[in-house]
Design goal:
It contains 10 helices and 6 strands. By secondary structure, the protein is an alpha+beta fold. It folds into 2 domains: 69 residues; 166 residues, Muramoyl-pentapeptide Carboxypeptidase, domain 2 (2-Layer Sandwich). The strands form 2 sheets. It has a 4-stranded antiparallel β-sheet. Helix 5 packs across helix 6. The longest helix is centred in the N-terminal third of the chain and has 47 residues. Bound molecules: zinc ion.
C-alpha cells in the first residue's frame, strides 16, 4: 500500500516529524496538571495522616495490653525483649520515607548510571557522553545500531518475542550528532527558503527535528520499533500484537515506553504519544521506573530530590 506523502518531504521517512505541543496546548495542560498535582498532594497527605493515626492507635493498644497480660518479666526475658525490639527498630526504618522507597545513595547511584541519562528537547546529551555501538536493526532500518548493551538486550528481546510468534523490528536507533545536525540544518534551510529569518527558522525547525544533542536517539539508547504487519512509525502501531508483547515484556529486557499516551504523560514529555519509541535503561531501572508509574522526566526529578535530601 502506498504511504501518504509525509508533510515534510525531506524528512527521514522512518522517523516521522514529531509533533511538539503548541503553546496554547501547553498552557491548558499545565493548568490541568497543576489541578491534578493538588489532588495527588491531598491524597498523599490523607494517606500519611491515615497511616500515622493507624500506627498511633496500634501502639496505644499494643502497649498496655501486653504489660497487663504478662507478669513483670525476669531480667533475662527483659533483655530478650529489648534485643528483639531493637532488631525490629533497626529493620523498620530501612525503608526510606519517599515515594520511590530509595535511599539517597541509591538515588545518586541511579542518577550516575549512564543508562539513565536524560535527553529531551530541553536537556542536551552531555558533551562527554561516549559509548560503543552495535548493529541490531532490521534490513530496512536507517540507523541500525544502539549502544552495545542496549543492542544485545534488544536482540535478546527480539528472540524472546520470536519464540512467542511475534516479529519485532528495530527501525531507527542511534543517530550520530553529525547526522542530527544535518537533519536539523536541512529543516532550518527549508524555513529560510520560505522567507523566515534565521531565529524563527531555527525555532520552527526545532518543533519538527530536535537540534543536535537534544534527541534521545543521539545517546544510542532509543529504539524505534515496528513489525512486518505495521511498518510505519505511527500511533497505529499500538494496535499490533508486537506492541502488546512489548508492553508486557519490554521492561524485562530493560526498555521503557518513553512517550506514553494521554494528556498527563504528554504534558510531562511535551511529545505526543509514540508507541514505537522505546528507551533502554537496563532491566533493574526499568522495573523500578515501571513500578513507580512515573514518566522518565518525573522519575529523574524524584531521584534528584531524594539524592539532594540525603
Ligand atoms: Zn524515536
Amino acid at each position: 500500500m502506498q504511504q501518504p506523502m509525509p508533510p515534510y518531504p525531506h524528512h527521514d521517512p522512518h522517523h516521522p516529524p514529531r509533533r511538539r505541543l503548541t503553546r496554547a496546548e501547553m498552557r491548558r495542560r499545565r493548568r490541568r496538571r497543576a489541578i491534578r498535582r493538588l489532588a495527588v498532594l491531598f491524597c498523599a497527605l490523607a494517606l500519611v495522616v491515615g497511616g500515622v493515626s493507624f500506627a498511633v492507635t496500634r501502639l496505644a493498644s499494643a502497649g498496655p495490653s501486653a504489660s497487663a497480660a504478662s507478669p513483670a518479666p525476669a531480667e533475662g526475658e527483659n533483655m530478650a525483649a529489648g534485643s528483639s525490639q531493637s532488631q525490629a527498630a533497626s529493620s523498620a526504618p530501612a525503608a526510606p520515607q519517599n515515594a520511590l522507597g530509595l535511599t539517597a545513595a541509591e538515588a545518586s547511584a541511579m542518577l550516575a548510571d549512564p543508562r539513565m541519562v536524560l535527553v529531551n528537547h530541553q536537556v542536551p546529551m552531555p558533551e562527554d557522553y561516549t559509548f560503543d555501538t552495535k548493529e541490531c536493526g532490521s534490513a530496512t532500518a536507517i540507523n541500525k545500531t544502539l549502544q552495545t548493551e542496549a543492542a544485545d538486550a534488544f536482540l535478546e528481546m527480539q528472540a524472546a518475542a520470536a519464540a512467542d510468534g511475534i516479529t519485532i523490528w528495530m527501525q531507527s536507533g542511534y543517530r550520530s550528532v553529525d547526522y542530527q545536525t544535518t537533519l536539523y540544518n536541512n529543516k532550518t534551510q527549508q524555513f529560510l527558503d520560505q522567507g523566515y529569518d534565521e531565529p524563527t527558522a531555527r525555532e520552527m525547525a526545532a518543533n519538527v527535528v530536535n537540534p543536535p544533542r537534544y534527541s534521545e536517539h543521539n545517546c544510542g539508547l532509543a529504539a524505534d520499533l515496528n513489525c512486518p504487519e505495521y511498518t510505519a512509525l505511527e500511533p497505529g502501531f499500538e494496535d499490533t500484537a508486537a506492541f502488546d508483547w512489548l508492553c508486557q515484556h519490554a521492561g524485562d529486557y530493560g526498555f521503557i515506553l518513553r512517550y506514553p499516551k494521554g494528556e498527563a504523560a504528554e504534558a510531562v514529555t511535551e511529545i505526543t504519544y509514540e508507541p514505537w519509541h522505546w528507551r533502554y535503561v537496563g532491566p533493574e531501572n526499568a522495573a523500578r521506573i515501571n513500578a513507580s508509574g512515573l514518566i522518565f522526566e518525573q522519575y529523574i526529578a524524584e531521584l534528584q530530590s531524594i539524592a539532594a535530601a540525603g
